[in-house]
Amino acid sequence: MEGPEEHGETSKAPLSRGASKGVSILDVILRFVAIIGTLASAIAMGTTNQTLPFFTQFIRFKAQYSDLPTLTFFVVANSIVCAYLVLSLPLSIVHVIRSRAKYSRLILIFFDAAMLALVTAGASAAAAIVYLAHKGNARANWLAICQQFDSFCERISGSLIGSFAAMVVLACQQFFLKIS
Amino acid sequence: MEGPEEHGETSKAPLSRGASKGVSILDVILRFVAIIGTLASAIAMGTTNQTLPFFTQFIRFKAQYSDLPTLTFFVVANSIVCAYLVLSLPLSIVHVIRSRAKYSRLILIFFDAAMLALVTAGASAAAAIVYLAHKGNARANWLAICQQFDSFCERISGSLIGSFAAMVVLACQQFFLKIS
To answer: Which residues does residue B63 pair with via DSSP β-bridges, in sequence order?
Structure first.
């Protein structure tokens, strides 16, 4: 099918061969960044717990991520995306060498879009709950729990950063993959 | 390779010209479905309110979407996506006629991905809050408000459907746009 180099594969890519290779290398680098982001988020959220020195009838003395189902979803979503990104890395490296590979690139684009949606869903659902933990809601009579669980709240807020960074990276990657 | 029109545009599209036109028509139809979904979601959520025949010190006698900031974000996100889809419709129709248009398609793919992320963020954040309204959270001492505000809860749960449908449609569309 290929001649000296992939002869017979026409391309509508607006980029030259060299630029396309550059984009492929960028793709690998961005994948690494997204792996670090999602992994850090999943670990930071998953290992959070805080035990208070006191407890009352209403406030539990220990807080961890599994107390809130949304935060569990956040950990699961980040883990899945991280695992996918690790598995997709070899394919992405192949694209650096065979810069005109067409169908394998389509597969990557498709799953990348699904993973973008998954990490967005996890991050924004968790952000909604973290916001509630910080601010509470007077109308629904949900009290902010961050006065009690201050270090727990700091950790769960911080762990959102990696996930949102991965979201931005995956969105950019979508675009780079398309133009390459 | 090309006919008299679009001379000089090569294509790596795996589809024939006829199939590509079919996909473009499908794209227009899916855009209509997504418009209806997001519009219905925004309206259903935005017009929800329930006034209780009684009130106590803690539970407010009137519930509407703006009581919960996340639901406000849901309405805004759905409105933005709906407006974008309406504006993108003419461009999408142009693609049915000029089925090899390249750069305008890239623009659509790029903004579609951004809108997919936005509608996903809105829908999943709202879903997290709606879940909390239904189930509450004993650990955080957040009580379910759906016992009181039953019709309010039904409406906000129902309004998620349109948004999630639009999400699925936009994700499919991403793929169709890429292979066309």
So the answer is: B50
Inspect the interface and report whether the beta carbons of A117 and B122 lie closer than 8 Å. no
Judging contacts by C-beta atoms under 8 Å, the chain B residues touching residue A168 are none
Nearest to A125 among B58, B68, B128 (CB): B128
Give the side-chain half-sphere CA count within 13 A for B94.
Answer: 11
Whether residues A122 and B124 touch (CB distance < 8 A) is answered with: yes
Domain B17-47+60-179 belongs in CATH node 1.20.120: yes
Contacts of B133 in chain A (CB under 8 A): 140
User: What's the ipTM?
Assistant: 0.81
Size of interface A-B (CB pairs under 8 A): 126
State the CATH architecture for A17-43+63-179: Up-down Bundle (1.20)
Low-confidence ranges of chain B (pLDDT < 50): 1-13
Percent of chain B at pLDDT exceeding 70: 87
Collapsed DSSP state (helix, strand, coil) of residue A137 = strand
Contact A73, A67 (CB under 8 A): no
Strand, helix or coil at A62? strand
Q: Considering only the beta carbons, identify the residue of A116, A143, A179 that sits closest to B117.
A: A116
Number of Cβ within 10 Å of residue A39's Cβ equals 19
3-state secondary structure of A9: coil
The residue ranges of every structural domain in chain B are 17-47+60-179
